[in-house]
Predict the 3D structure of the following.
Amino acid sequence: MRFIKMMAFALVAMIAAASCGQKKEAPKVLVLYYSQSDNTKAVAQEISTALGADLEEIVPVVPYNGTYDETIQRCIREREEEILPKIQPVQADISAYDVVFIGYPIWFGTCALPMLTCLGEIDLSGKKVVPFCTFGSGGIFSSAADIAKKQPEAEVLPGYGVRAARMMAMPEEVDQFLKANGFLEGDYVKLEEFPETHAVSEEESAIFDAAVEGYSMLSATASKVASRKIPGGTEYQFIALTAPRQATPESKMVEITVYVTVKDGEAPVFTQVVR
């Protein structure tokens, strides 16, 4: 009897050891993106390489390869006529993936039209969806909300966005983003929350003005601000007043949030605008 008990204990121990030795299966990841100027493509490749994820580009049947003005006019016409461009069929089997990173440039405050077409043709139900985008001023939050509307059965996670003017900072930011959100192991800097805002001082107003100078699409005046320390500098959260995009004589000024980074020894630069 004693021998049988010893054998039973040994068997239980072996099973427990085998269970502890089993690794949790890693989620299967797809990076699906549309890129016009290669900025979004660069972000997609950075994420794919870091995660060892599959990568696929969305390709419009009729490319947006005209001049900047021609592209803008085409987009305006398609938006007014509620036309979504046709795209080449997505080759990846979406059902085989657990996590799908969705990448796109921001056009008119949301995902570029080819991505909106794609979101209407694929099914992301039950998937974890991570938006990422490139932009002139901002749009990660508004576009993520539109993705959630297009794919209500998906779990849309916090996304990453970068200004086209700041692509040099992208690799380090992507690394920190992936680690902070649990997609990569490793150390990352956990930033403190911004404190309450206060009225801007002359010095802070000058920082804001220097950050937005030369960007014609952002004409605003800072009214309140909060700041926090970041590695190698300071990040500011400005509340600013600006005219609405479609202003009329009766329009009132609206509040926007502008994030500005000042690295030690460098000029201020705004990182994104939230409208």
About this structure: The longest helix spans residues 2-21. Residues 29-180 form a domain with the Rossmann fold fold (CATH 3.40.50.360). Residues 1-21 have pLDDT under 50 and may be disordered.
